Amino acid sequence: MTELSAALAAAEGGAASSGGSSPLFMYGFLALAVGAFWLMSRRSRKQQQTQQEFRNQLQPGDEVMTASGMIGTVVEVASDRVTLESQDGSSRTQWVLAAIARRTDPPVADDEPVEDAAVGDAQRIAGANDRVIDVPDDLSTLDDRRDDGGKPRK
């Protein structure tokens, strides 16, 4: 038994002297892990702070979307609750302030109507159908002349 413990002690001593895990490597790895954790938590805190500022600025009349996808208009803002009205005005629901995901922009009305590409194509096709193209039923009604001025085909 003592021979086994002596062999293990010799093996551990050899590993330490041959460049095993040094304290400098462990401290460097630990510093790298702490730095990565700090960067990730800082980013998360910044996003949470931005969301909190957004929720604190909600006012009646703002059009918002909840985290579940419901779109509505803010009617009332209480301390931690928001009352939303549906777009058609038929119902009002209360939501926890944290459930409001983002503000939606109302659609902007254009001054000039933009021509739809499909409408343009439809008009072009309708105009092409107005021209009459005479297509023969068989080859017997065609001329024997070629378009390039060559000899007739036989």
TrEMBL record:
<feature type="region of interest" description="Disordered">
    <location>
        <begin position="122"/>
        <end position="154"/>
    </location>
</feature>
<dbReference type="InterPro" id="IPR003849">
    <property type="entry name" value="Preprotein_translocase_YajC"/>
</dbReference>
<keyword id="KW-0812">Transmembrane</keyword>
<keyword id="KW-1133">Transmembrane helix</keyword>
<comment type="similarity">
    <text>Belongs to the YajC family.</text>
</comment>
<keyword id="KW-0811">Translocation</keyword>
<dbReference type="GO" id="GO:0015031">
    <property type="term" value="P:protein transport"/>
</dbReference>
<keyword id="KW-0813">Transport</keyword>
<protein>
    <submittedName>
        <fullName>Preprotein translocase, YajC subunit</fullName>
    </submittedName>
</protein>
<keyword id="KW-0472">Membrane</keyword>
<feature type="transmembrane region" description="Helical">
    <location>
        <begin position="25"/>
        <end position="41"/>
    </location>
</feature>
<feature type="compositionally biased region" description="Basic and acidic residues">
    <location>
        <begin position="142"/>
        <end position="154"/>
    </location>
</feature>
<dbReference type="GO" id="GO:0005886">
    <property type="term" value="C:plasma membrane"/>
</dbReference>
<keyword id="KW-0653">Protein transport</keyword>
<keyword id="KW-1003">Cell membrane</keyword>
<dbReference type="Pfam" id="PF02699">
    <property type="entry name" value="YajC"/>
</dbReference>
